[in-house]
Amino acid sequence: MLKTYNYNELSDPQLKQLITRNADSSNEIGSVVEEIISNVKANGDKALFNYAEKFDKISLSSLFIGFEEIQELAAQVEEHEQKALEKAFYNIHKFHMEQLKDEAKVETTIGVTCWRELRPIERVGLYVPGGSAVLPSTFLMLGIPAKIAGCKEIVVCSPPQKNGSINSYIAYCALLLGIKKVYLIGGAQAVAAMAYGTESIPKVDKIFGPGNQYVTKAKTIIQSTTNTAIDMPAGPSEVLVIADNTANTAFVAADLLAQAEHGADSQAVLVSNSQQLIDEVNQQLQLQLNELPRKEIAAKAIENSYAIITSDLQQAMQFSNMYAPEHLIIETDNYESLIPEIINAGSVFLGHLTPESAGDYASGTNHTLPTSGYARSYSGVSVDSFVKKITFQHISKAGIKNLGPTVEILAELEGLKAHANAVTVRMREL
Ligand SMILES: NC(=O)c1ccc[n+]([C@@H]2O[C@H](COP(=O)([O-])OP(=O)(O)OC[C@H]3O[C@@H](n4cnc5c(N)ncnc54)[C@H](O)[C@@H]3O)[C@@H](O)[C@H]2O)c1
Ligand SMILES: N[C@H](CO)Cc1c[nH]c[nH+]1
Ligand SMILES: [Zn+2]
């Protein structure tokens, strides 16, 4: 059962508390992760073998699997599963190809031309989660934009499975993506290995991918302590559903549970202007929860979740913007009028027939998205995440005559004479 709060009765501190998730205020996760990072930095591969034993309960003979093993594993995937992975690949590829657009050159003033060109980030690291569930779909969500961008070196890490290898679906995705090696490393240690490099793992320029709180904390630490960048904090999954009395309560409950089953630390929030809808969704949650193989996990996440009753849908949207959900689902007949009011959300799902899980797997949009309120300032992964946009300019004779005096005045007013001179010496030669 979702605890219900009345939006109009909440104080500011209560609201603040409700929208805070996975804060790690006592630094429990942070201190574990800091130790893992310094151990990997100091001891390289040796630390990685030890962490595989400690956290993944596996004694590895090698830290990676190569192309032959990938091919053997991929051959175990059944035909209907291959087709589903290929369909997802195709749709994700089609959607992401649109993101590779050249920008026009701009003549900002006579004789002065400015433009931007894309260059791929050369060495990227992809983290594919594999703790409580192995997520081949995440491999596609990261690998496809990396390939479209043209990244030269793509390092892939995923936790080793019980067989001491990867699962066959990850192997099949590797073949689809043309990736010939997968490192068997999970958690914060994978992030540290890709940030610092070890005897076996190449150092990369940027690390991508979602993960649990250890992975996400490691990414935020290495972002501020090394020259390796990250895509965004993409931690435990979350969803916020806005629904009114036009919604199908079984659909709403199914959508809440779809994210709840990711992990006990996931959150599913329902916001509605109808108490009757909230009551009926609660009944549906109980019915559907019992049918789920991962019911213990999902039930814990639901305990950690809640419903909010608002006066109207505008107020529901106000709460959603404060919460800044990774996924926002709007299950109302009149969803179109709410679109302009959306300010903060990672990815939005509109209408009664648009389950969030379509976006998780196969509609085409990327499922690697900011969590814990980071949708206020970050976008989800896209081709843009894998490129740099470098600015260029060229100034002609007419251009330096035209713009030179402006630059000289601005340099003088900042007291930077050498800046002015770089223009003056050229103007003298004209
Ligand atoms: N935001 C997104 O875009 C997005 C997308 C997909 C998945 N997710 C989230 O990714 C997460 C995946 O988590 P997961 O745990 O299944 O897999 P994971 O691969 O992120 O983490 C597994 C690793 O965590 C490490 N670990 C486990 N317990 C530890 C401990 N006590 N101390 C230190 N390290 C420990 C181990 O090394 C293990 O290999 C879920 O929370 C899911 O909701 C988010
Ligand atoms: N919902 C996750 C993003 O938070 C992505 C995912 C992968 N597989 C299933 N779901
Ligand atoms: Zn999901």
Automatic annotation (TrEMBL):
The pathway noted for it is: Amino-acid biosynthesis; L-histidine biosynthesis; L-histidine from 5-phospho-alpha-D-ribose 1-diphosphate: step 9/9
Q: Which residues bind Zn(2+)?
A: Q259, H262, D360, H419
- Keywords for the protein's UniProt record, in alphabetical order: Amino-acid biosynthesis, Histidine biosynthesis, Metal-binding, NAD, Oxidoreductase, Zinc
Please give the family membership noted in the entry. Answer: Belongs to the histidinol dehydrogenase family.
Whose protein is this, by species?
Solitalea longa
* Keyword NAD (UniProt): yes
- Cofactor details (free text): Binds 1 zinc ion per subunit.
Q: Which residues form the active site?
A: E326 (proton acceptor), H327 (proton acceptor)
According to UniProt, the name of this protein is Histidinol dehydrogenase
Q: Report the superkingdom from the record.
A: Bacteria
The positions annotated for binding NAD(+) are Y127, Q189, N212
Q: What class of enzyme is it?
A: oxidoreductase
User: Which residues does the annotation say bind substrate?
Assistant: S237, Q259, H262, H327, D360, E414, H419
